[in-house]
Amino acid sequence: MMDKFVFPGPGVGYSLHNHSTFSDGSSTLEEMCRAAKNAGLTVFGMSDHWVEPAYEGTGTESWRMKHDRLDEYVETLLELKRSLDDDNFTIKIGLEVDFFFENMDDIFARLKQYPLDYLIGSVHCCGTFPVDHDASDWLPLSPEERAAVCEMYWQKLEGAAKCKEFTFLGHLDLPKKFAVIDSERYFAHAIRVLDILKTNGGALELNTSGWFKPCRSPYPSLDILKAANERNIPICINADAHHCDHVRRNFDEAAELLRKAGYDF
Question: Which of the four pLDDT bands, split at 50, 70 and 90, describes residue 2?
Fold first, then answer.
């Protein structure tokens, strides 16, 4: 049974969206977990990228975990739990799973064979278009092409929101990353995702990594956070750390933003 959150969320001592050298991170699992413990976090989760594309041409091989390393990933984290867990610190084993309409049932069935504590539902691929790879992918697109990518992105997030296997959705308004998309145009799409989460008992993250991207804004925006709070949708602050120095980056700022949105931990 995957972890589930209750409103308002698990609070500021958690961080569950983090990556290691098993996918596109630059620190090892041990470096990440030890840094989290030293930083005073109470619950720390690793969630390296798990992607099983439903079609060819996504180019995800360069940043996802190799499929034959999942056993090693889980075994390494179980060993780290045995050595680092104590009354004040707990490691959680997770994955950030890319959503595809075509094959999610098969993906969930395979992952259920492992002692995973949680799954993050995310969208990085719209067709073969890489949503968050580089600004140069977006710049050649016409306004109509950009809109088509965003429409597909939010449709896929609606699909992910319906999956009760996901503990929470990752970086909700990700297309704004390179500051070439007017996210306000898609606010109604975000509301549809929030309504699905409310119905299905899903949750969100406040992902602080957006503060360090060209958009200079966390995921999701304050307006979306306010709407999530109005719907009693649980939330968790996450760093989306790819290096051990970043495991609780901007958590104080995130807590203040959540208070502005009406959350009270």
Answer: confident
Q: Scan for tokens 């990752």, then name that residue.
A: 170
pLDDT of residue 1: 67
How far apart (Å, rounded) are the C-alpha atoms in residues 122 and 113? 21
Can you spell out the DSSP letters for 84-105? Answer: H-BTTBEEEEEEEEE--TTTHH
**How do residues 26-77 score in pLDDT, each as one tens digit?**
999 999 999 999 999 999 999 999 999 999 999 999 999 999 999 999 999 9
- Give the count of alpha carbons within 13 A of 3, CB side only: 22
Report the SS3 class of residue 48.
strand
Contacts 24+ apart (CB under 8 A), 219-223: 219/170, 219/171, 219/172, 219/173, 219/174, 219/176, 220/171, 220/172, 220/173, 220/190, 221/173, 221/176, 221/183, 222/257, 222/260, 222/261, 223/184, 223/187
Contacts of 142 (CB under 8 A, 6+ apart): none
Q: What residue has token string 């001592």? A: 13
**Sequence spans of domains, the chain:** 14-150+164-261
Q: What is the dihedral of CA 261, 259, 180, 129, to 10 degrees?
A: -80
226 forms bridges with which residues in the sheet? none
CATH T-level topology, domain 14-150+164-261: TIM Barrel (3.20.20)
